[in-house]
Amino acid sequence: MPSLNIKNEETHRLAVDLARLTGENVTTAVTVAIRERLERQKPNPKAGLADWINELTKRTAILMADSPDSTHIFDDLYDEMGLPK
Fold first, then answer.
1. Cβ(63)–Cβ(56) under 8 Å?
2. CA-CA distance, 17 to 19, in Å (whole number)?
3. Which residues contact 68 (CB under 8 A, 6 or more apart)?
4. Cα atoms in the Cβ-side hemisphere of radius 13 Å centred on 63
5. pTM for this one?
6. If you average pLDDT over residues 12-29, what whole number do you get?
7. Is 29 in contact with 22 (CB distance < 8 Å)?
8. What is the percent of the chain with per-residue pLDDT over 70, rounded to a whole number?
9. What is the pLDDT of residue 75?
């Protein structure tokens, strides 16, 4: 069976502290922590989408600068009873 020998005192203390807090044994605590960190390191396919939306928002905000706000748009579309004009 493979083994991991942690020779760094701080790392060992952190692993023990994590195990104590989670109620797991040290091996499980370390396994879960490494698995979670590996998952966070994987590229997020949605990150590119968020960047694209932010860039689009910056570009289109300039075009919308002179437009009325949403309350005025609704005032033009609906009467005081909430019915379409």
1. no
2. 5
3. 76
4. 5
5. 0.53
6. 96
7. yes
8. 100
9. 79
